[in-house]
Specification:
about 10% strand, about 200 residues, 5 helices, alpha+beta, globular, about 35% helix
Length: about 200
């Protein structure tokens, strides 16, 4: 990997931020990848946000990010450096699965790659089947865009508690907005406008 020449602003940023943090203006996590991250080879690497002068690019990775906020609850973490990473945290994926069982269909496609959601185009399929598969793929892209709009809305609601120009350490963000099953059920109920089914322990 070639050494990247940093602007004075980016160099100062990397000296100032010592923990992976939520950059409040954009909602992305930036800072050194923590040792708790499951991607061992990325520990200590700098994860950028788009507001930096020269965002870090990681060789051999589909995406130069190890950890992101969950696209549904914006409290738990998801993401990863591969195209086969999840957009939602473990708790939100569990809610998605529970709702699929209750409603008979999967509410949201939460895998970064369409194939993770059972959506793809088969090369050996008939023209009619391929047409339907392509329509499904286009629908997936539109679906991800709609989820992105929800994420901006939900993130904005949570971020309003903080200085609008701050970098808030992820631990502080999650102390203010704890992730977990209750947070995920709450986000899903507001996102869908429907009451989730009662769980067996209620």
């Amino acid at each position: 990997m070639t050494e990247q020449k940093l602007s004075a602003t980016d160099a100062a940023l990397r000296r100032r931020i010592t923990k992976l943090s939520v950059h409040i203006p954009c909602g992305w996590l930036r800072g050194p990848v923590p040792a708790t991250c499951k991607w061992n080879h990325l520990h200590g690497r700098w994860q950028s946000c788009g507001d930096e002068d020269s965002p870090e690019k990681w060789n051999g990775c589909d995406v130069s990010r190890a950890i992101d906020l969950c696209i549904i609850c914006c409290r738990g973490t998801a993401g990863g450096p591969t195209r086969w990473s999840w957009l939602a945290c473990t708790d939100c994926r569990a809610v998605n699965t529970a709702l699929e069982s209750a409603w008979g269909f999967r509410p949201f496609a939460l895998g970064r790659h369409s194939l993770m959601n059972g959506i793809g185009v088969g090369g050996n399929s008939s023209a009619e089947v391929q047409k339907a598969q392509i329509a499904g793929l286009m629908g997936f892209f539109e679906h991800v865009q709609r989820l992105g709009e929800w994420e901006k809305q939900e993130y904005g609601r949570l971020a309003s508690r903080f200085d609008p120009l701050a970098d808030v350490p992820l631990g502080v963000w999650q102390q203010e907005w704890p992730p977990g099953p209750s947070a995920s059920w709450d986000a899903f109920s507001r996102l869908t406008g429907l009451e989730p089914p009662r769980r067996s322990n209620e």
